[in-house]
Amino acid sequence: MQVTIKEIARQLGVNPSTVSRALAGKPDVSKATRQRIIELADQLNYTPNLWAQNLVGTTSNWIGCLVLDLSNPFFVPLIRALEDIAGQNGYMIFLGESRRQIEIERAMIERFRRIKAAGVILSPVLADLSHLQVLQKENVPLVIVGRTVSGFDSVNVDNYRSGFLVGQYLLSLGHRQVGFLYSGDPYNTPEMERLRGFKAALSELQGNPSWDIVVGNNEIKGGEFGAQKWFGDPRRPSAVFCSNDMLAMGFITQVTRLGGTVPEDVSVVGHDNIPFAGIFKVPLTTISFSTDQMGQKAMEILLARMLRGNCGNDPQTFLLEPEIVMRSSCMAK
User: Fold this and answer.
1) Could you read off the pLDDT of 244-283 as tens digits, one per residue?
2) Range of 253's domain?
3) Of 21, 124, 146, 281, which is the most exposed, with the fewest CB atoms less than 10 Å away?
4) How many separate helices (H) and strands (E) can be counted in the chain?
């Protein structure tokens, strides 16, 4: 039978609320009483019912974390960084994924509200912000990662700079017929910023990429579809910038299935430097930035908001600096 706060209080002859405050580290309990309570709790192997504490308190020990796609390795180091810092500060992560669907995102935000999450970190779909604005009105701290959204604290990579770096790099290799492969999601602002920077780098020699293809998703299958389009196009470019590494890996896989070679037939660049990008069948040239730092900075901002209680005031945007990692998927023209 699980030991309860009431049982500890009964044995010590104190109020259950005193036991609760002592075990929670509240300052309004004497040192001697706190010590007695902790010692007895240890002797009885007391385990706190954290879920019950969350339901009766004004806030909880949970921090809601919502990402777009748990199947994308990009989010693994980000989530680990969030969990590490949350744990160091006495919080636990309540993790979910929206699968890039606004209805799921709304439902998850409602769950965070019901458990009285102390704060929320998420990568939003961006099709609607009203449910996020509700959190702000309720003074729940909220930090957005992987997107930059006006009116909210955001931690992101400089996606314009990413695209510019890729454009410069491909031009330096002698490529003039270059393409861009992307999902085409109207709310995917990062890939549109990457395209904008890419075009800017190319503008000295040509106004736009010579080839681009919308594949409808950011998954391996999207890259495979793009490769089929590339293979059947007589005007196909000699280099392709894929808006993320999953697309790039799908593209490379399908090009080789169809009898082509990378980088001899086409140079390929990705974005995100996800785990395993460097040991893929063709080690992938890609844009890298610290997803660990993204998680650390997001949690730092969130904890500061939780401490000060000034949610929504003077929102800040923090941009990580990208760099290009050169591997075997590109060669000079």
Assistant:
1) 999 999 999 999 999 999 999 999 999 999 999 999 999 9
2) 159-288
3) 281
4) 12, 12
Q: ∠238-240-243 over CA atoms, to 5°?
A: 175
Q: Which of 312, 308, 319 is nearest to 142 (CA)?
A: 312
Whole-number Å distance between alpha carbons of 221 and 226: 9
DSSP-assigned letter for residue 80: H
Q: Residue type for 204, please?
A: E
Residues 165, 123 share a domain: no
pTM of the model: 0.82
| Amino acid occupying residue 173 | L
Say yes or no: 43 and 121 in one domain: no
Instruction: Summarize pLDDT for 216-243 with one digit per residue, the tens.
Output: 999 999 999 999 999 999 989 999 999 9
- pLDDT tens per residue across span 152-175: 999 999 999 999 999 999 999 999
Q: How far apart are CA 221 and CA 11, in angstroms?
A: 62
Residue corresponding to tokens 């965070």: 112
Exposure on the CB side of residue 82, measured as CA atoms within 13 A: 29
Q: Are residues 224 and 316 in the same domain?
A: no
Tell whether 195 is covered by a domain: yes
Check whether residue 28 and residue 95 sit in a common domain. Answer: no
The pLDDT of residue 208 is above 80: no
Burial string for 281-294 (b: 16+ CB within 10 Å, else e) reads: ebebbbbbbbbebb
